[in-house]
Amino acid sequence: MTADTMRRAVDTPSTLRRKWAPPRLIEGTAARWLLTLAICTYLYLAFNSIDVNWTRVAEGLIRAGRLFEGFLSPNFTARWSDIQQGFIESLTMTVTATVAGVVLAVPFGLGAARNIAPWWLYGFCRGVIAVSRALQDIIVAIFFVAMFGFGPFAGFLTLTVSTIGFLSKLLADDIEEIAPRQVEAIRATGAGFWQVIDYAVASQVIPRLVGLTAYKVDINFRESSVIGIVGAGGIGATLNTALDRYEFDSAAAILILIIAVVLACEYGSGWIRKRFA
Amino acid sequence: MLRIEALTKRYKTGDAALRSVSLSVGPGEIIGLIGPSGAGKSTLIRCVNRLVEPTSGKVWLGEIDVTATRGSALRQLRRRIGMIFQEFALVERLTVMENVLSGRLGYTGFWASWFRRFKQADIEDAIALLERVGLIDHIDKRADALSGGQRQRVGIARALAQKPELLLIDEPTASLDPKTSRSVMRLLTELCSEHRLAAIVNIHDVGLAQQFLPRIVGLNGGRIVYDGPASGLTAEVLTTIYGEEDWTANAASHADEEATDEGAASSARLLEVSVGPKVEAAQ
Predict the structure, then answer these.
(1) Which of B93, B98, B105 has its CB closest to that of A195?
(2) Can you give the residue range of the structural domain that contains B52?
(3) What would the DSSP string read from start to end of B213-272?
């Protein structure tokens, strides 16, 4: 392109169009307004359908005030033996369920990685993972409480199932993204299948697996306090009892301890992840 | 020692990577495999240790038909063939020593390898190899802490730890600077003659190939178009392998990436000349 033709190209626009506006999400003007109106109408009706009982709000605010008062003066001593037992149960559930979950998640994770497993195993493992992830922990906990009765055993099973779902899915996805060259190199030495898994696959995914496990420990602890409310033992059960009896100072003590443990887990898992990177 | 007979590989996508390639490599012989990207160089060496399954044809290592083995027989065969990779393909998070010892996996039971309890003789050999390639001071460093040239030396030590009869070397210098490339090539050729190893070296750099490798095989479009001494790589021959280019302007320049099927230059050493239907006009 010579300088002359270049100048001409800049001077005269190639088309007659001179206006520009960004493209709209919905092109038709009428359709756009109609949709906006419909959404506004629905929101108006929806908000109006929520009954606000102002007397109950007032009572609630009083109770909220007492709860916060309790927070300012948490009572660790009044229900200490219950709190202690609840925490020991919760921590036991967390640790045992995480360990059992990891032990089971590794084979499911290997089976659910497309680059390692044959298609039938892949399908089966992905199916198990999908089911265990589809059901919310509280629903699983209700099932297990119904099956095995109240107590930490139901909680242990619930957390194990949720750990399998969580870890094996992330492990499988991670295995599917490993560097294939390293696998090729180990295969080329004449290594057997499990040696290839050990040297070429595990060494690539273990740091992330360790990090995820540490993360899952603190999720499991928080979960253990929630599923206690539906009867699966642990600190959740103690908290529920305290709230039912309007013992907000004891409830506050429990909440403070939960926050402390979660924070400790957070720091611990951060440290572990750094060490294994 | 290694005989390849009418080897053909067609990928699932329908692309023929190799079309009836025949080649034989004598004991202790090193050959350089050159050709444009996509000519089938990587596929060819991967068919030898069956990281890639050939579609048809045979590969003989000594008296064993490589293409017919499976399972543990195939793993035993792979122990005899060392492989060195372009991007080094070290296991990044393992230490230098673990990487070298992984060359012994084919000779080590699973639990022994799981607990990293290798045989004393294997450990001594690995240490000797690390001394030979000059990395003994880095023995417990993680592989990802090393420089490119050092990593390639670990890759070489890993391949030699297998005590192979044949080395398959895939673009050993493509990720290295010119000086390191030369020292790695020198090390490779020295080690091959020390251990009387046969080797196939895929290499992009024609100048480097001519400098270090006595016998050159040129591949284009999955066919062998040249097989002869490095001194026979004339401008005409290079045009047959890579396509039209002004080879005299800078004889040692990197090969042209484009695979064009043109130029029916005849030469006494040319085995086959593929003349494509589309002939692009020379610039």
Answers:
(1) B105
(2) 1-80+214-277
(3) -SEEEEEETTEEEEEEEGGG--HHHHHHHH-S--TTTTTTSPPPS----------TTB--
**Given CA atoms B104, B110, B111, B114 in this order, what sign does their dihedral have?**
positive
Domain CATH code at residue B224: 3.40.50
C-alpha A13, offset from chain centre: 55
**Chain B residue closest in CA terms to A184:** B51
pLDDT, tens digit, 9 for 90 and up, residues B54-85 = 999 999 998 889 998 888 899 999 999 999 99
Contact between B146 and B69 under an 8 Å Cβ cutoff? The reply is no
d(CA B219, CA B149): 27
Chain B neighbors of A198, CB-CB under 8 A: 110, 113-114
Residue B58, classed as helix, strand or coil, is strand
Residue in chain A closest to B95 (alpha carbons) equals: A203
Mean pLDDT across B155-164: 94
**Would you state the pLDDT for residue B80?**
93
Pick the residue of B52, B93, B113 with the most A CBs within 10 A to test the interface with A by mutation. B93
Q: Is residue B87 part of a domain?
A: no
For this complex, say whether ipTM is above 0.85: no
Is residue B254, in this structure, part of any structural domain at all? Answer: yes
B61 close to A (CB below 8 A): no
Is B232 in CB contact (< 8 Å) with chain A?
A: no
Which residues of chain A carry a pLDDT beneath 50? Answer: 1
Query: What is d(CA B221, CA B9) in angstroms, rounded to the nearest whole number?
Result: 12
* Selected residues 92-111 of chain B with any CB under 8 Å from a CB in chain A: 92-94, 98, 102-108, 110
Q: Do the bridges between strand B2-10 and strand B16-25 make them parallel or antiparallel, or are there none, so unpaired?
A: antiparallel
Return d(Cα B269, Cα B231) in angstroms, integer: 11
| B111 lies in some domain | no
User: What tokens does B181 get?
Assistant: 């490339």
For residue B144, pLDDT beyond 80: yes
Q: What CATH number does the domain located at A77-276 have? A: 1.10.3720.10
pTM confidence score: 0.76
